[in-house]
Specification:
Blueprint lengths: L1 H12 L13 E7 L6 H4 L3 H8 L2 E7 L6 H10 L3 H4 L6 E3 L4 E3 L16 H6 L5 E5 L15 E3 L7 H13 L5 E8 L3 H7 L4 H24 L6 E6 L5 E2 L5 E3 L9 E5 L3 E6 L3 H9 L5 E5 L18 E5 L4 E3 L8 E2 L13 E4 L7 E7 L3 H9 L25 H30 L20
Parallel strand pairs: 1-7, 1-8, 2-18, 5-6, 5-7, 10-15
Antiparallel strand pairs: 2-17, 3-4, 8-17, 9-16, 11-12, 12-14, 13-14
Helix pairs in contact: 3-9, 7-9
Protein name: Bis(5'-adenosyl)-triphosphatase ENPP4
Keywords: Blood coagulation, Cell membrane, Disulfide bond, Glycoprotein, Hemostasis, Hydrolase, Membrane, Metal-binding, Signal, Transmembrane, Transmembrane helix, Zinc
Cofactor: Zn(2+)
């Protein structure tokens, strides 16, 4: 019985190792629909996406990194790093040493990207492999002197269909073969900003268009014979929350603009003081009860948002649904960037392919966990990262996975079986040791004859 228990617990504690040696390198397509809030899946109909999920896996909530904006989270997905580590700390940045500025329209300088190594670079450096990209942030930049073998310069005017057509062409007809490809689409983020996520009528229309695009993607992959052998991950960078003019924080009512420079605005504002930092901080910290004001060194540890020179001396964080403005105008009815613990900021993840289980649902992972999972699927050695591969093991067919309730149930079940077997053995042994009825008394040779009365 002791041997059985030891063997059981040895199996429980030892997971299966993934096979990283492949005769034909596995292929992976990573797709992002910007601003796809996790609970859209519960609140709207997605027939094509639900069919994709039924044949694959679903992670209902992906906890992203703070700040919950587009450039930072897309780089966290492909590096497995928090923003303070990979250096893309906002959509708008300023470096005090070089005096350089970064924005979504001025993002091509490798200086901003070279603090990390994205997965397409790692894959690109593997023997007989190449990478491809359709407008994923950073893929049109020479990062560590490397771009994907095939990529598209970013242009919002290029349709999803054209982006997908290029990706599938590169996956089908490239030498060396494209083993990692990534595809980005601006919706439903753009419409979420315009209408707000609580505008059911408009968001229903937009999300139906997204679902139709997913249907087109699957149909295209099947038509080209890629569907069965290609691993596909569909995810997003962040969610979206509703804003309104009644929830505005007007900095002009609290502090003179001449005393500071605003590097990034709302809902996380990056403030570079022109005068004494303490003086600017004191004026801002009492500006609104709906905004937290942090000196850089006091930013909560759970944000992992302190240790980078691109993070400004003062950070303002608005409460969910509140907007930081310099006047009373409000241009967005929906926004993101808020505290990454908020469910409204979380995206989802769905995946399909030979590396993934079929019909499996998982509650949550961290967005930085996606990177080590992708490296495992591709057989790449990951760079140091903040992700945890064990968080995604349950999604993968080559990994042994069990959760705590199941483990407790199995242990109790095994103990009950062992206890029952032990009791049965004891009962059988007792029965065998009882003397048979009417058995003759056996006398020793030196015993006297028994007395007969």
């Amino acid at each position: 019985m002791k041997l059985l228990v030891i063997l059981f617990f040895s199996g429980l504690m030892t997971g299966c190792r993934g096979n990283s040696s492949y005769s034909v390198p596995p292929k992976l397509l990573l797709v992002s629909f910007d601003g796809f809030r996790a609970d859209y899946l519960q609140n709207y109909e997605f027939p094509h996406l639900q069919n994709f999920i039924k044949e694959g896996v679903l992670v209902e909530h992906v906890k992203n990194v703070f700040i919950t904006k587009t450039f930072p989270n897309h780089y966290s997905i492909v590096t497995g790093l928090y923003e303070e580590s990979h250096g893309i700390v906002a959509n708008s940045m300023y470096d005090v040493v070089t005096k350089k500025h970064f924005s979504d329209s001025n993002d091509k300088d490798p200086f901003w990207w070279n603090e990390a190594v994205p997965i397409w670079v790692t894959n690109q450096l593997q023997e007989n492999r190449s990478s491809a990209a359709a407008m994923w942030p950073g893929t049109d930049v020479l990062i560590h002197n490397t771009t994907p073998s095939y990529f598209m310069n970013y242009s919002i005017s290029v349709s999803f269909e054209e982006r997908l057509n290029n990706i599938t062409m590169w996956l089908s007809n490239s030498n060396p073969p494209v083993t990692f490809a990534t595809l980005y689409w601006e919706e439903p983020d753009a419409s979420g900003h315009k209408y707000g996520p609580e505008d059911k009528e408009n968001m229903r229309r937009v999300l139906k268009e997204i679902d139709d695009l997913i249907g087109y993607l699957v149909q295209k992959l099947k038509m080209l014979g890629l569907w069965e052998n290609l691993n596909v991950i569909i995810t997003s960078d962040h969610g979206m929350t509703q804003c309104s003019e009644n929830r505005s924080i007007n900095l002009d009512l609290c502090i003179n603009r001449s005393t500071y420079t605003l590097i990034d605005l709302t809902p996380v504002a990056a403030v570079l003081p022109k005068i004494n930092i303490t003086e600017v901080y004191d004026k801002l910290k009492n500006c609104s009860p709906h905004m937290n004001v942090y000196l850089k060194e006091d930013i909560p540890d759970r944000f992992y948002y302190q240790h980078n020179d691109r993070i400004q001396p003062i950070i303002l964080v608005a409460d969910e649904g509140w907007t930081i403005v310099l006047n009373k105008s409000l241009s967005k009815l929906g926004d993101h960037g808020y505290d990454n613990s908020l469910p409204s900021m979380h995206p989802f993840l769905a995946a399909h392919g030979p590396a993934f289980h079929k019909g499996y649902k998982h509650s949550t992972i961290n967005i930085v966990d996606i990177y080590p999972m992708m490296c495992h699927i591709l057989g790449l050695k990951p760079h140091p990262n903040n992700g945890t591969f064990s968080h995604t093991k349950c999604l993968l067919v080559d990994q042994w996975c069990i959760n705590l309730p199941e483990a407790i149930g199995i242990v109790i079940g095994v103990l009950l079986v062992l206890t029952t077997l032990t009791c049965l053995i004891i009962i059988m042994q007792n029965r065998l040791s009882v003397p048979h009825p009417f058995s003759r008394l056996q006398l020793q040779e030196d015993d006297d004859d028994p007395l007969i009365g």
